[in-house]
Amino acid sequence: MGRYGLYIASIVLTVLFGALTLYNLQWEWGLAIAGLLVVVGTIDLLQHKSTLRRNYPILAHFRYGLEAIGPEMRQYFVESDIAETPFSRQERALVYQRSKSVRDTRPFGTLYDVYGTDYEWINHSLRPAHIESDDFRVDVGLKCSKPYSASVFNISAMSWGALSAAAIRALNEGARRGHFYHDTGEGSLSPYHLENGGDIVWEIGSGYFGCRTADGKFDADKFTAQAAREQVRMIEVKLSQGAKPGHGGVLPGAKVTEEIAQVRGVQAGVDCVSPAAHTAFTTPIELLQFVARLRELSGGKPTGFKLAIGHPWEWFGIAKAMHETQLWPDFIVVDGAEGGTGAAPAEFIDHVGVPMHEALMLVHNTLVGLNLREHIAIGAAGKIVSAFDIARTMAMGADWCNAARGYMFALGCIQSLSCHTDRCPTGIATQDPARWKSLDVPDKATRVHQFHDNTLHALRDLLCAAGLEHPRELGPEHILRRISPTEVRSLAAIYRFLAPGELLHKVPEHAVFKTFWADASAQSFTPPDKVKALRVGKTV
User: Fold this and answer.
1) Looking at CB atoms within 10 Å, which of 224, 315, 407, 442 has the fewest?
2) Average pLDDT of the residues in 214-226
């Protein structure tokens, strides 16, 4: 049955029962039922609050009916797929509440097992603070000619092509209203990113979409023309992403429309493939030189890179290159293995890349150990949806956080798991205009804006309870974790934090630094001899 099949059938049945009723009143019951369905379907098509109802008139109510049965049946019929994803049902409900400014208080205490291992909390103070504004911001690129003041909670990289034009419009308008940034993803800077005027972080991936030559190399002239736009606030080079690090991106040919092909500089109807590696640089030093070149070409805008941590010696090579050349990125975004995507091999989603917390700790510790932390801001992404997620991530070393799926939920994503098929029922992850034109941009932009603002309201309340004035005051000592039924440790006690400048004087007694730091090279990403020896079982 097509999307409008039941609605059309209801119209036909209404006409049929209407004709029969003229001859025999015993058919009036059929006329009443069919007529009622027509009324429901017509209301579905005319309303603008629910994209699902506009795309699936009448049919959508069967889903809502299952959700109304009760928690047990709802979990069995509707949310069994969500239970298998990193986002719990409670977190998804929290996004919906905050995006609609619905009261998010809850009776009967916590849903978590407070005696279970890995339960975490933030300690409160007997002298709570009072904070007037929750517009928490961090300055990025203070030594650039065009520094940027970023919100501590922004929209993570999601490309036009993976998402629809309407979804991009709504995200960017929400970002404009809330004064936070919208990362383009690697799919280029599209007209839909620019339409509403929200702040943009332009992500440059290995495909160099929007700034590429005919053979897929970096084109400086095209980059300069785009980066000069006032709306583009920062430039981000994507080295890898958490959902499929080391794999490269693929936009299926079914989604590569003529318009997308023109914006990206590729062929329409053919799979749009991002190479796994960049061609503009091949060594850590060349990476930093490329970042410096982009900063200059952009007119002095903050420029940095995003990466998912993999082989530690490769990250150490980049860090050593920073120390040796004094070429620093203005920021680094750490993407965790928890990151999502519209389509990726199962093994990559489940078992490739370092989780965000461990990756963030490694990057933060390394920069502190080299006395570079004050020069480089750090963003973090990976399963961040609540104010506590933001607080915990900033306590572990981040200056700000990015989120993707949380903002998709605010748009109305129901996790139908059809992102790669071009048949997204909510009009978010599709290039089918018959589907995405049903997504009401002003309404969804309001939800994006409200999700951001209400989450920062909650963050402010957490900080006040802890007696703090700003998220920058959060440290690992503020977050507690139960590590066994009888033991509790702060993150400061669980993890080893390096002292400022420690790496300049000695190699710490820390497994990853002790094993890989000394042999990492600023000249190459290739494994050091020690690693090669370990691979073949030789004595090191």
Assistant:
1) 442
2) 94
Res 537: pLDDT:
56
Q: How far apart are CA 376 and CA 343, in angstroms?
A: 32
| pLDDT score for 349 | 66
Q: In this structure, is residue 489 part of a structural domain?
A: no
Phi, psi of 501 (to 5 degrees): 80, 5
| CA dist., res. 376 & res. 319, Å (int) | 11
| Helices H / strands E in the chain, number of each | 21, 15
- CA count, 13 A, side-chain hemisphere, 69: 14
Residue 524 exposed, middle or buried by CB count within 10 Å (0-12, 13-18, 19+): middle
**Same domain flag for 66 and 161:** no
Distance separating alpha carbons of residues 234 and 303, to the nearest angstrom: 6
Count up the domains in the chain and report the number: 2
DSSP 394-456: HHTT-SEEEESHHHHHHHT----S-GGGT--TTSSS---HHHHTTS-HHHHHHHHHHHHHHHH
Residue 420 domain flag: yes
Is there a single domain that holds both residue 359 and residue 425?
yes
pLDDT digits (tens, 9 = 90+) for 343-354: 566 676 666 778
Domain boundary among 484, 502, 519: 484
Task: Determine the structural domain holding residue 45 and report its residue range.
Answer: 5-80
Residue 186 in domain? yes
**Interval 22-38 mean pLDDT:** 79
Q: Please state the pTM of the whole predicted model.
A: 0.86
What percentage of residues in the chain have a pLDDT greater than 70? Answer: 88
Strongest mean pLDDT among 104-108, 115-119, 526-530: 115-119
> In a 10 Å sphere around its CB, with 0-12 CB exposed, 13-18 middle and 19+ buried, how is residue 107 labelled?
exposed
Contact assessment for residue 221 and residue 228, using Cβ atoms and an 8 Å cutoff: no
Q: Are 278 and 398 found together in one domain? A: yes
Residue 531's contacts (CB-CB under 8 Å, 6 or more residues apart) are: 313, 516, 519
Residue 361: HSE in the Cβ half-sphere, 13 Å Cα cutoff = 18
